[in-house]
Amino acid sequence: MHDPIAFFLTIATYGTWLPGDKRGWVEYQLGWKLPCRPLELEARARMTEQACILSLTQRKSVESQIAETCEYRKWTLHAKNCRSNHLHVVVGAFKTAPKKVRQDLKAWCTRRLSQGTDDRRENWWAERGSIRWVFTEEELERVIEYVNDAQDSKHLEK
User: Fold this and answer.
1) Cβ proximity of 29 and 153 under 8 Å
2) Domain count across the chain
3) Residue 157 scores a pLDDT above 60
4) Amino acid 87: pLDDT
5) Euclidean distance between the first and final Cα of the chain, in Å?
6) How far apart are CA 10 and CA 130, in angstroms?
7) Which InterPro entries does the entry link to (predicted)?
């Protein structure tokens, strides 16, 4: 297997896609799981603040920070799209572990959001997030198209 040419990251905002969710959910290192209402209620009860829904201004701030971080780290930013309840990024970050890429992007976006609002929010993002490896130019084209265009056309935005 050859090295990936990019990573396709998806990061939910805090509290917007909980374990047990009615849409299904991903259990860390165990994969996709069916909805489980009692588990969702338990997860919701453990939340320390309300779910995070990003405003248009906050979304623009996140996208700006993604671009700035990628430029600073010398990563190739192929696509970014911050939605009200999640973020997609397609990035070429050679010789950098994908978890490090995700961690850095979340950390810098958190700093930007915390500085740019009067909110006292502590939790902006879900604990982890999805990392998909992209190996071919064809796959790269598909994920870029999805991030840039397909979400709006499929009405996936809440």
Assistant:
1) no
2) 1
3) no
4) 96
5) 38
6) 5
7) Transposase_17, Transposase_17_sf
Residue 61 falls inside a structural domain? yes
Residue ranges making up the domain that contains 85: 6-16+51-153
Amino acid at 15: G
The pLDDT tens digits of the residues spanning 112-135 come to 999 877 678 999 999 888 899 999
> What does the buried/exposed string (b/e) look like for 89-121 if buried means 16 or more CB atoms within 10 Å of the residue's CB?
bbbbbeeeebeebbebbbebbbebbeeeeeeee
CA distance 155 to 158: 8
What gap in Å lies between CA 24 and CA 77, rounded to an integer? Answer: 29
The answer as to whether 81 is a domain residue is yes
User: Contact, 147 vs 80, CB < 8 A?
Assistant: yes
Mean pLDDT value of segment 5-12: 95
- Could you tell me the pLDDT band of residue 1, with boundaries at 50, 70 and 90? low
Overall pTM > 0.85: yes
Q: Is residue 82 part of a domain?
A: yes
Among candidates 105, 106, 130, 137, which has minimal Cα distance to 4? 137
Summarize the confidence of residues 82-106 as an average pLDDT: 95
Query: Domain of 120: which CATH number?
Result: 3.30.70.1290
The angle subtended at Cα 57 by Cα 54 and Cα 60, nearest 5°, is 90
Is 109 contained in some domain? yes
